[in-house]
Design brief:
Blueprint lengths: L2 H8 L5 E4 L13 H6 L1 H4 L16 E6 L2 E4 L3 H12 L4 E4 L34 H12 L5 H13 L4 E4 L3 E8 L2 E9 L4 E6 L2 E4 L5 H6 L3 E3 L23 E2 L2 E5 L36 E2 L9 H21 L9 E6 L4 E2 L3 E3 L7 H4 L9 E5 L3 E3 L14 E3 L5 E4 L11 E3 L8 H7 L2 H21 L3 H6 L1 H13 L20 E4 L27 E4 L5 E20 L13 H4 L11 E10 L5 E7 L6 E21 L4 E10 L1
Parallel strand pairs: 1-2, 2-8, 3-4, 3-9, 4-5, 9-21
Antiparallel strand pairs: 6-7, 7-8, 10-16, 11-13, 11-15, 12-14, 17-20, 18-19, 22-24, 23-28, 24-27, 24-28, 25-26, 25-27
Helix pairs in contact: 4-11
Length: 652
Amino acid sequence: MNRRQFLTMAGLGTGYSLIVHADGFSSAAPPSREQISNAFDRVAPPQAGVGHFAGEPHMMLVDLVCDVFVAGGGMSGVCAAVAAARNGATVVLAQDRSRLGGNASSEVKMHIVGANCHNGRPGWREGGLIEEFRLDDAANNPQRSWELWDLLLYDKVKSEPNITLLLDSVLFAAETKDGAIQQVMVRCDKTEHLYRIKAKVYLDCTGDCRLALESGAAFRWGREQRTEFNESIGLVAPDRQTLGSSILFTSSDCGRPVPFTPPKWARKVTKEQLQFRSVKAWEYGYWWIEWGGQLNTVRDNERIRFELLSIVLGVWDYIKNSGNHPTSATWGMDWIGMVPGKRESRRILGDHILTQADLEGKNGDFADAVAIGGWPMDDHPPSGFDMQNTHPCVQIRTAEVFNIPLRTLYSKTVSNLMMAGRNISATHVAFTSTRVMATCSVMGQAAGTAAAFCARHGLAPRQLAQDKARVGELQQALLRDDQTIKNVRNNDPQDLARAARVTVSAEYRTSKAANVINGLVRDMEREWKNRWGAPMTPDGAWLELAWDKPQTISRIQLTFDTGFHRQLTLTSQDSANKGIIRAPQPETVRDYEITAVVSDSDKPVSLAKVTGNYQRLNRHTFKPVKVKSIRLRITATNGAEVASVYEVRCYA
């Protein structure tokens, strides 16, 4: 949309102008209830009757100005918004639903999976924001309530003072000039507001590339010919088909017979149609109830919804009434999705297109790596359930996790447009791996952090990617926030701990005291290469950092062990929940105290004392103090007999 069209559509009303200023970084205290309440004046200003659109007499125009605008509140959008906000940017997040989470929300109920699944090396569970969210959910939601997961994501966003959240709000227009987005339009018909939003960097996390579409960015749709990118598992001839969508259901044993009569429009499903589709348990419906990739998954969504519902009800009718599953007699369906869980539509073109060879490590590593992936290349037949004579998926596992470069997270044709989620710059083959939600989450954190970096330094994303020194700064910022980048370690020059001597109460097995400053924060299962561990005694366990000369510090960052070798997700599928601990992870340090020996005294001074911890990443900020040494004394874990710590960082 050009400027004249945009202004014609928007009318010439001045609107209510709001400039949102950054007022803190991640170390700032969370906002009070009163501050959150007052913030609603941003999105629903009290000046009634001011700034209406010429063509929308009953809608109020509100102007918002921010550093980073995020369209889409799925897992990639939430992580992008929170990451940008915690890195000092002011953010407007617009989500077209009443809840956050996308396919991971209670509207779809798809559990989050990613790099630690099916790659043969337990230990690659994603760190960073998605780990923080998972740990909160496991500790506070043992009953596996999806609505509480929705609430957790809402809390994470509302607790960031730099984020303005617009729910039930749809992006519908963008103005571009000289290859850059100038402003976007978002509407909320429920509250009768039209938002005109200006930002420095714009992030498309919509999945369907709606912001890219409105801004005129280049994108792809469909499956490439294998010769175009030399992809052995690509197609002989290209087409515009995609993966389909799914609708899930849940059911429970009611303890008494529960009859089921399907509606007349439900499909009739037979045993022969399920020859490649397993029906062994039915507490959680089936991802293989998939359909619609042979159509346009955006424009044909209503037809896709209907067909998926007809298949779901047909499968449930088969379970209940075919006679082949008599133990289902007392089971009743207690939830069915009404929002198709979409897998694929458009993909935005970036400066690099991720390919099969990239995932297989054949092209070497990326100098601008910012996140990891690791789910198998997982392709599905486009028409899904209708392809009943074939397996519902073909999975090809990569030998190891792979890095994802920054150049796949910004548009090649619109200079201030970035993206994260299933719409990144990738071929269809590579997309079949990167599309899963844990991978989308870490890409969101990477893109949000990079967007904040660009806004702060006045850079376009391409300028950032082309500056080796700046990319190094970005990578170190991501590592500091516990984002995993394969083969990149902490070499932050501001981290004073790297120059300290480390002594400990004991060393468990092959663990070494110096591991806490070696710059790496994960081990594979049963390894002790990058963490220190010590048996818990009645006096606990401790480690100490000391310097040859006193150091002034005001912030200490600790990274604990949270059992990365295990799965950790919210799921309604009992088999997927096996091995998941819906509580604080036992390896994690629970109670501890940090003390320091200050330069003018030998008497220890307490800097922080914590009880009840279950998080992996912990930061403690205090008034600057000049210290000779600091000591971390651990008095309890969440169940393990060994206390383990991956990293200690200290900053002035």
